[in-house]
Write a structure and sequence with these properties.
Structural class: alpha+beta
Number of helices: 2
Largest sheet: 3 strands, antiparallel
Strand order of the largest sheet: 1-3-2
Strand content: 5-15%
Number of strands: 3
Length: about 70
Amino acid sequence: MSPDTAIEYAPGPVERRAFDQMRASGVIREAHPAHYWFDLDRMGQDRRRTRNPKARIAIVLAVLMGAALIWMIP
């Protein structure tokens, strides 16, 4: 999407936190006052950045569980 596709939006109390987080990360950008658009490229970058640590944690936990199982076998 682009600034040309910006829409007027005022988040309610429930959406405010997520909206502010997406603005801070650059996923939601302001074209002009109260008109916002999604930067899909930035959204993809943001998803990759948050997904990678979870995968690393899962791999470390799997290795630790495997080592614990091997250690427990008589």
